Amino acid sequence: MATTSICVDQNSVTRLSGRELLSRAVTGIIVLCLVAQTPSSSAQSMPDAGGVQVGTVRVDATPGHAINSFDPDSALGSSIDVLSRRDIDSVYSPHIIQESLSAGWGPITYRNNTELRMAAWHWTENGTWSDAAHRSGYFTGSTELKEPIRYILAYALLHRGFATSGDRPVQGPNLSYWKSNPYLTSKFTGESDALHPQWVVLDLKAEKPVNAVRIAWASPYATKYQVEYWVGADALDFDAGPKGEWKAFASGVVNDARGGTSTLLLADTPVSTRFLRVLMTESSNTCDEHGAGDVRNCVGYAMQQVAAGTVDGSGAFSESPKDPAEKRTTFCASSIDPWHSADDVNDGGNYQHSGFDLFFTSGLTNNLPAMIPVTMLYGTPDDAAAQIAYIEKRGYRIGYIEMGEEPDGKHAMPEDYAALYLQWAAAIHKVDPTLKLGGPIFEGVNEDIRVWPDAQGRTSWMGRFVDYLKAHGRLADLSFVSFEHYPFEPCSITWKTLYTEPQLMKHILQVWRDDGVPQDVPLMVTENHLAAELTGPMTTIFAALWLADNVGSFFEGGGAAFYHSPIQPQGIQNSCLGWASWSNFVSNEHYDIKGYTSPYFAAHMINREWVQHRSGVHSMFKSSADIKDREGNVLVTTYAVHRPDGDWSLMLVNRDENNAHTVRVVFEDSRDKQNKSFSGPVTFVTFGSEQYVWINDGLNSHADPDNPPAATTLAANSGTTFTLPKASITVLRGKVAGTKN
User: Fold this and answer.
1) Which of 2, 132, 425, 725 could form a disulfide with 28 if both were Cys (CB 3.0 to 4.6 A apart)?
2) pLDDT at position 51, please?
3) Pairing mode of beta strands 271-283, 198-210
């Protein structure tokens, strides 16, 4: 990588915008040789007697004490998500590709928003329907190399019916009844249907008296089922862990049902409850309206309607009353049949995914293997295998494959996800047994995901998923575990929120290990930002400091690959805490880039200063600083790596919003019981509140100043101290006397 040196005086620097400076060295490292350094932004050598309170940064540099190792070209990346057709045409232009890659991220992960929104996706429109005559059923894409694929379309699920679990489900014109996923039946799992009970949960939105349920069954219907009520807090809050239990109604167990529409008296006296569950364990295996030509039409369970209420003395059923101010009853289902038709396509211009040919040939992959998804919860194993065969036939490089998308957000049970996972893994590995598969791609959570207890009382989603793979002798099919990281509530972020990130990240990494994920299975964050919804701090200096802490603590906690979201520019929008953008760049509706956001410059610090891409494996060592505030909050966090070029590189985050801090750096070697220090030239690069301030001004919001990181070089020795500007990220990089370089 070329290095561009820009030697100017301090006054000249302040007159150059960030874009002007960066345009001189988009793909290189910008070095500002500051002729007149200001005390708050410089590194300086001074004795303790100078009156400056000096903290100490300690690095355990003992050979053999590395706590992690990673190659930035596979471990530090970004992501691309769903876009409109017009956005796809703009994002994949050479200029935007160049700008997107200039932040320095290496590989890219492709996000599957279609499955997130409870829809089927066609990675290609060339393929076959299981019911070819009606262009409906189960679609399998073709592996033929025809015209390059530019757009991927979403299809509403006809058999979603009344089910509403998921993130803003793609609507369709033909929604009929709810039907469970046929791939969770004994025909495909090879085990009893009772091991994968399917269910529908009714959320009445408030406690209501219930002693009856009316179910209009479709085919196939349940011959054995039971109706239960929930005692406790929110039954569907898997993030906090549902606290309570399901109890069967006194007359809620049915062992010889015959389908049709039936009203079941559950108890003589109504029970006050908010949640009801219909738990189905044995199917009639009668065929649905699509006929017996495909066994998938004849397994599982289907309902036209279900309602809870009361039965009076005359036997008349009354559905639970709804207050006008209440939301309507919603229905969460265990799974959904991926059956759909050509008529269910969402072919509007505002919701497409990037076609794989466009994605792989555009340059966005940075000439590195990419992480790609296969649709699993609402797809078929044959279609997933065909997708992989097509990509490999084209010669595109696959790094990892994520299986499905956010099953926890759809309230899928771990055993159900695992059963699908094994079927899809078998199909994909028939195409290429060397491919690395993983998941479950959890939503952003800070604690373990807890579900209703199984027969052994186990509630950990991840623990039960891992146990299922082990019990089936297939743990080797799990090559990595991935999850998303959106740690904060968007409207409650304050500056002190920043102090919590390292602990949050390290904690959730340890949670997955405690749940049973083996130490040799890598942990990956494959989607990431401050919050799951837009919030003002995403474009303030807060986001830059958070991102540095986020990345550093992830690798310090043992993580393997980290992907920041998203890579493409986006416009600004209003949020609960001000105007902001999700992206590294602010663009207008024509995708003209109007400015860079703080995460862009933080990415520069991480990818172009702290680590060295295209160079190999970096070793991470434990480090710490002793600077705290009066409440005990750590104000300076530190992350130390030994790079392949022999340099020691420290990323220091001064999280003090108001004060600079001066530190000395000590490299401790417990083997020879010596303390060592930087020796010779040390590169000092800093980015913080002196370089960047976000101005919240509605649609005119922008950064001013918007300068890039400032860099200088100094001769260091054992007496050198370094001043870290307030609210800043600083990288120190150089050789250490007496260590193996």
Assistant:
1) 2
2) 55
3) antiparallel
Longest dimension (CA), the chain: 94
Contact 692, 707 (CB under 8 A): yes
Provide the 10 A C-beta neighbour count for residue 19.
13
Residue 350: which of 81, 111, 85, 589 has the closest Cα?
Answer: 85
**Residue 288: φ, ψ to 5°:** -80, -170
* 402: its two tokens: 């994520």
Beta-bridge mates of residue 108: 78
Say how far residue 250 (Cα) sits from the centre of its chain: 43
Question: Which has the closest alpha carbon to 19: 602, 695, 698, 601?
Answer: 601
Q: Does an H or E element contain 122, and which?
A: strand 119-122
Distance from C-alpha of 215 to C-alpha of 298, rounded to nearest angstrom: 19
What is the C-alpha separation between 339 and 123, in angstroms, rounded?
16
Instruction: Give the residue from 562, 553, 487 showing the smallest Cα distance to 524.
Output: 562
Say which DSSP state 612 is in: -
Report the alpha-carbon distance of residue 315 to residue 317 in Å, rounded.
6
Nearest alpha carbon to residue 730 among 39, 19, 43: 43
Record the pTM: 0.92
Label residue 16 by pLDDT band (50, 70, 90). Answer: very low
Chain segment 497-524, per-residue pLDDT in tens: 999 999 999 999 999 999 999 999 999 9
DSSP string for 63-78? TT---EEE-HHHHEEE
Q: What is the pLDDT of residue 327?
A: 78
**Cα separations (Å) of 669 from 65, 626, 651, 741?**
9, 19, 20, 14
Q: Write down the residue that tokens 């003090």 correspond to.
A: 656
Helix (H) or strand (E) holding 426: helix 414-431
d(CA 614, CA 620): 17
Percent of the chain with pLDDT over 70: 92
The structural domains of the chain, ordered by start, are 182-334 (2.60.120.260)
Is residue 640 within 8 A of residue 59, CB to CB? The reply is yes
Is 167 strand, coil or helix?
A: coil
Q: How many CA atoms lie within 13 A of 191 on its CB side?
A: 16
Radius of gyration of the chain (CA): 28
β strands within 643-709, DSSP E: 648-654, 661-669, 674-676, 678-688, 692-695, 702-706
CA 313 to chain CA centroid, Å, is 53
Question: What is the average per-residue pLDDT within 683-699?
Answer: 96
| DSSP bridge partners of 276 | 202, 229
Q: pLDDT value at position 18?
A: 42
**How far apart are alpha carbons 442 and 635 in whole angstroms?**
31
Residues for the chain: how many in total? 741
Helices 381-394 and 414-431, interaxial angle, to 10°? 40
What is the Cα–Cα distance from 137 to 651, expressed in whole angstroms? Answer: 54
Element (H, E) at 86: helix 85-91
- Tracing tokens 């239990």 back to the chain, one arrives at 245
Q: What whole-number distance in Å separates Cα of residue 290 and Cα of residue 218? A: 12
pLDDT band with cut points at 50, 70 and 90 for residue 589: confident
pLDDT of residue 24: 36
What does 112-153 look like in DSSP terms, one character per residue? -HHHHTTEEEES-S-EEEEEGGGTEEEEEE-----SPP-EEE
Q: CB 482: neighbour CB atoms within 10 A?
A: 23
